[in-house]
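Input.
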Amino acid sequence: MPSRRLDAFRILLIALLLVAVTPAAAGSRPWNEVVEAARGQTVHFNAWGGSAQINGYIAWVGERVAERHGIRLVHVKLADTADAVARVVAEKTAGRNSGGSVDLIWINGENFAAMKRAGLLHGPWVEQAPNFRHVDVQGKPTTTVDFTVPTDGLEAPWGMAQFVFFHDTAHLATPPRTLAALADWIIQEPGRFTYPQPPDFIGTTFLKQALVGLVADRTVLAKPVDAVDAAAVSAPLWAWLDRIRPSLWQDGRTYPQSGPALQRLLADGEVSMAMAFNPAEASAAIAAGTLPDTVRTSTLDGGTLSNTHFVAIPFNAAGKEAAMVVADFLMSPEAQAHKQDPRVWGDFTVLDVAALPPADRRRFADLPLGIATLSPEQLGPALAEPHPSWSAWLEAEWERRYAAGR
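Output.
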């Protein structure tokens, strides 16, 4: 999900890192006391606001926590996660160590790594949450490791993601299944493919997917970008992008600004393929009427990138207890099953469904798969994300090479 960075954020963070800070420990406060303290609090949930389905799901969560716990949930709709991160950094710099404006934040990747490094997160607290016991930490190891960085109880998992492609069978019957075949098809069918412009989250993920598929030794990507010869490692990626660029939509002179913008091009018939980091997103879009029912999902031979997305509580959150209760609800079988329904969102669960009580297992068994959703077996291998530092480096290098007018 959207997880971009800002130059201003970087400057503030560098300044902040000059000061020794450590995350505040949540301790072992009894959960019933947390729930009691949460009643009447407001949670400003800073989360991406670019999807009607996701916005609807968060509104549903707000109704549930209001009914059950007397918590008021306010969805602060973000275009860029880094906006909220920068706000927390600015508050820390200004000495606002309590009563912060961000209570809960949807986060992962480099933003989490930076906040953890700077001591800007409340916790550890996640293992204290009752529903964390249902999380499949063994079968889904990325629920406790975020882009190679251990979460250490500072963020709660609430969804699984795997990178997929969409294709409209009205224009493309059989999609390419390798990067070499994709490049060949792009050149043979000029103007029918593009990708979102980095630093859009989906655009950056496409760069990382291509890098992982083209690099000689994937293990080098687990290292910080400044610990390796990034230019040499990434050379196959830029050669591949150079080859396809003249055959992209709009001759590669301009790019859609987001994943949803790319989906609109697919819906309008301007391109034949799109992409997302949610295996059920095409089914959800078809159900919502924003994509034609001829769209189907595909992946690449050998697998695609996969990760977990999380929620975290800033160190100075005004409603820490309520934020913990909301995060716990997000991990509940009820909330996870509702979220996985492609008619709602289609976001895959972080839970060990097989270990749930029978009634909760039925919540998942009764879900429709979705007309365009691949089964877990069809999705293929889930590939590990590179170290979070690669994202910003790839974005900057892409900007240098391919930004408009260059």
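The first strand starts at residue 42 and ends at 48.
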